[in-house]
Amino acid sequence: MKRYIMEHTYSIEAGNYAVAGEASSSIKGLLKKLGIDGGIVRRMAIAAYEAEMNLVIHSVGGSLTIKIAPDELLLISEDGGPGIADIDLAMEEGYSTAPEEAREMGFGAGMGLSNMKRCADEFNIHSDAGIGTKLQIKIYLK
Amino acid sequence: MQIREVARLLKADILAGSVNLDREVKFACGSDLMSDVLAFVEEGTLLLTGITNLQVIRTAEMIDVFVIVFVRGKVPANDVIDMANDRNITLMSTDYTLFEACGILYQAGLKGKS
Prior knowledge:
By secondary structure, chain A is of the alpha+beta class. Chain A has one domain: 2-Layer Sandwich (Heat Shock Protein 90). Chain A has helices at residues 22-33, 38-58, 87-91, 100-104, 112-119; strands spanning 6-12, 62-69, 72-79, 122-128, 132-140. In chain A, strands 1-2-3-5-4 form a 5-stranded antiparallel sheet, covered by helices on one side. In chain A, a hairpin with a 2-residue loop joins strand 2 (62-69) and strand 3 (72-79). The longest helix of chain A is centred in the middle third of the chain and has 21 residues, at 38-58. The two termini of chain A are 18 Å apart. Chain B is an alpha/beta fold. Chain B has one domain (3-107): Udp-n-acetylmuramoylalanyl-d-glutamate--2,6- Diaminopimelate Ligase, Chain: A, domain 1 (3-Layer(aba) Sandwich). In chain B, 37% of the residues lie in helices and 17% in strands. Chain B contains 5 helices and 5 strands, in the order H-E-E-H-E-H-E-H-E-H. Chain B has helices at 3-9, 34-40, 54-62, 78-86, 98-107, and strands at residues 13-16, 28-30, 46-49, 67-70, 90-93. Chain B has a 5-stranded mixed sheet. Classes of the chains: A alpha+beta, B alpha/beta. Chains A and B meet through helix 1, helix 2 and helix 5 of A and helix 2 and helix 3 of B.
């Protein structure tokens, strides 16, 4: 088992656009404070923000967890549904099921998952339709 | 290009973050798609957009963008301006359209990054 020296979990409310991004902002601040390389902080901030927006836009609510080890950062996004029916399709750039409300905010262009993957050294997604989605994004520090 | 010069060229009103007026930007990006901005915009790039909600400030914060130009005379709500001031992000509003504002800055020497 990997030993993480620090771990923090944020609860993310569905549909609350007014606070969407606060968890990612806090994660970014934490990583900066720890003196982690700026490029890595930025990659994790982008991945966290896309994950957080996905939770706000698509899920019934969930959580975002950051785990920090001396040699890696791990971000976990978990929600309680509704799950993704076809992950391959969801991963395609340009495919989106986001509502008009999200599009008005500049999201819902079908770029979120591929953006997260681009930022990650390891990217894992598991989803069960009707149950929920779990995403893991790992970035190496060494 | 200095932020002060951007504001002059675009006849823009400064709405927040006047602390950055002497800072320089080398590149600019015009987009209303925040995911595109997150994917392709480098640190210190000037962002021009027609979107004025809180998510634009969040997006800028994540990627270390410190200046945003709102086009077509758009002015965001006070909470957006407050959030930008808290984060030392400069906001300005120009009456030019996105296309015109990008064209003016490009002609004055500011480049895109592709």
